Amino acid sequence: MQNEQLLQLAIAALEDLKAKDITTIDVRGKTSITDFMVIASGTSGRHVKSLAENVLEKVKEQGVRPVGNEGLDGGEWALLDLGDVVVHVMQEATREFYDLERLWQGAEQSRAQHQE
User: Fold this and answer.
1) 116 located within any domain
2) Which residues are CB-neighbours of 23 under 8 A, at least 6 positions away?
3) Of the residues 18, 34, 105, 109, which has the fewest C-beta atoms closer than 10 A?
4) Is residue 102 in some structural domain?
5) C-alpha dihedral sign at 99, 92, 48, 77
6) pLDDT at 32
7) Residue 105 domain boundaries
8) What is the pLDDT of residues 31-64, one digit of tens each?
9) Is residue 93 one of the residues assigned to a domain?
10) Crossing angle of the two packed helices 45-61 and 3-16, in degrees rounded to 10
11) What is the number of domains present in the chain?
12) In sequence order, what are the beta bridge partners of 63?
């Protein structure tokens, strides 16, 4: 699966469960770790966990084997390493605290339009 297809699949899985403020950051040329970072907010620990699990389920259905994941049990912040795409799902206060968007400023950013 191409990295742009994987990116769109992850975003769609987040949108399915009403993730808030989905942001995509193109980090190609900025890091060798991944090509894209997706950052999204959940409204509660349960929502964060559900969002992350939905992304994992959808990518696995398409034959993508995640490299790893962290934080699914806690619900404050989940990290999904899909190889070319890394997905961060956080509660809003945690997202504000870590401010990954500012950390990666200068990288190409876009906010996905999600349906309310």
Assistant:
1) no
2) 38, 39, 40, 101, 109, 110, 111, 112
3) 105
4) yes
5) positive
6) 87
7) 3-111
8) 889 999 999 999 999 999 999 999 999 999 999 9
9) yes
10) 140
11) 1
12) none
